[in-house]
Amino acid sequence: GLDTKFLQQLDSAHYLHPFTDHAALREHGARVIVRGDGIYLWDSEGNKIIDGMAGLWCVNAGYGRTSIADAVHAQMLQLPFYNSFFNTTNVPAVQLAALLADISPPQFQHVFYTNSGSEANDTIVRMVRRYWQLAGQPGRQAIISRRNAYHGSTMAGASLGGMAGMHAQGGLPIPGIHHIGQPSYAEGGRGMSEAEFGLEAAGWLEASILALGPENVAAFIGEPVQGAGGVIIPPSTYWPEIQRICDKYDILLVSDEVICGFGRLGTWFGCELMGFQPDLIAFAKGVTSGYVPLGGVLVGGRVAHLLTEKGGDFNHGFTYSGHPSACAAALENIRILETEQLVERVALATGPHLKACFASLVSHPLVGHAETCGLTAGLNLVRRNGETVHDCEPFASTHVVGMLCRKHMFDNGVIMRAVGDRMIVAPPLSITVGQIDEMVERIRYCLDLTLEEVTQ
Ligand code: PLP
């Protein structure tokens, strides 16, 4: 068997993990994950764990799909790699481009491939600026994003993202990136209906555009439902109003679908559920269910038109743009999502069931409110003083109870993410109704364990 202690020592001696408190990691030792099947993971000690986060919101088709492994294997034997620079192409990259055009909203007929969501967003920063050059308005350089958003860890991705901690550590944002607030009703909606708050939050975009001067603004970017910042589901009025404002000032609208794309919300892309028509879509994660890295930008007709005209060259790209083995994984992954009708299942069965389960968790004394959209949900750990979302008191020092709860979950076989004191799930789309019950039962048990410690 595996020597867990030895692996943990090697890990601690040599491996710098992303977003990790290494002092704490040294103390507890990294959990060594060795196998996955469906929604389940196993660690090196033989513990079976429900992966309530689908890895990092990406293993949409679930673990253990031999047909994806077979497709990648076959492609690697045929042609493991070739590039698409300088007038060459490859079969899986072309087939996937056509398939993406087919499953995405009709304005998207072109794709630019990257390896990750961060690179997709970096590509978007450069692409929108190039677009406005080609459109004869080179002054349009500013890009508006949202505070507490996550759009990746590259210089531009982290700049678009609005997480203060990331900015502080890297001298960010890069010039020309501006941030407005999040449409979080629980945080900002006191005294307003949800619909009113949605319009107010969208109005912050208009205020920012007017402050910068519309002639200087290139694009607005946001996630349909914000993921890493805490599953913030905007009021239904928000995105249509954002669309109206972008149209009014002729500003490109960008949807970061790295989490929402490929079925997470019960539609192929989140913008379809939220009722807006972006000019560009960033995608990654679910396109291959994370089996191999792949990301990209879906490019709508307005931008693609100029980039594909004579003189519309875009000096940008990656060695692995359109990587044949990655595209082969994506083709098979999308075939699985289609043939098993996993996206429809989220809309009609598993999503509504998760929503009902999370609504029932609100009766727990530690839970203030819960929101669900498709197969992602979040609940707030609070001290309760009353019935409405505004009658809950956050814990004095944020993230302590969240981390405690997360630890109980992990120790009892279910992975949830803690964003401060908000607990989040986003399981594989292949999860069944019965498995959701199993997951929620464990969550309820761990909320009890957490409550016991909090009230001690
Ligand atoms: N955009 C969003 C909305 C994300 O959630 C993430 C990753 O979590 C990214 C971009 C960055 O993607 P990657 O980690 O593949 O670079």
Which helices and strands occur, and which strands form pairs?
Layout lengths: L3 H11 L7 H7 L4 E5 L2 E4 L4 E3 L3 H4 L8 H13 L12 H13 L4 E7 L2 H18 L7 E5 L8 H6 L3 H7 L6 E4 L4 H4 L5 H19 L4 E6 L15 H11 L3 E5 L13 H5 L5 E4 L11 E6 H7 L16 H16 L2 H20 L5 E7 L2 E6 L1 E2 L7 E2 L6 H12 L5 E3 L2 E4 L7 H23 L1
Parallel strand pairs: 5-6, 5-7, 7-8, 8-9
Antiparallel strand pairs: 1-2, 2-3, 4-10, 9-10, 11-12, 12-16, 13-14, 15-16
Bound molecules: pyridoxal-5'-phosphate.
The site of pyridoxal-5'-phosphate has 16 residues, from helix 6.
Keywords summarizing the entry:
2 domains; Aspartate Aminotransferase, domain 2; seven-stranded mixed sheet; alpha/beta; PyrdxlP-dep_Trfase; binds pyridoxal-5'-phosphate; Aspartate Aminotransferase, domain 1; single chain; 456 residues
For the termini, the CA-CA separation is 40 Å
Q: Could you state the CATH homologous superfamily of the largest domain?
A: Type I PLP-dependent aspartate aminotransferase-like (Major domain)
What is the strand tally? Answer: 16
Radius of gyration: 22 Å
Mean pLDDT: 96
Question: How many domains is the backbone divided into?
Answer: 2
- CATH architectural designation of the largest domain: 3-Layer(aba) Sandwich
Overall morphology: globular
Ligand species: pyridoxal-5'-phosphate
Largest beta-sheet details: 7 strands, mixed
- The CATH C-level class name of the largest domain: Alpha Beta
CATH topology of the largest domain: Aspartate Aminotransferase, domain 2
Share of residues in helices: 40-55%
Write out the strand line-up for the largest beta sheet, numbering strands in chain order. 4-10-9-8-7-5-6
What fraction of the residues are assigned to beta strands by DSSP? 15-25%
User: Quaternary arrangement of the chains shown?
Assistant: single chain
Low-pLDDT ranges: none
Task: Compute the number of helices.
Answer: 17
Structural class: alpha/beta
GO molecular function: pyridoxal phosphate binding; transaminase activity
Pfam families: Aminotran_3
Organism: Telluria aromaticivorans
Cofactor: pyridoxal 5'-phosphate
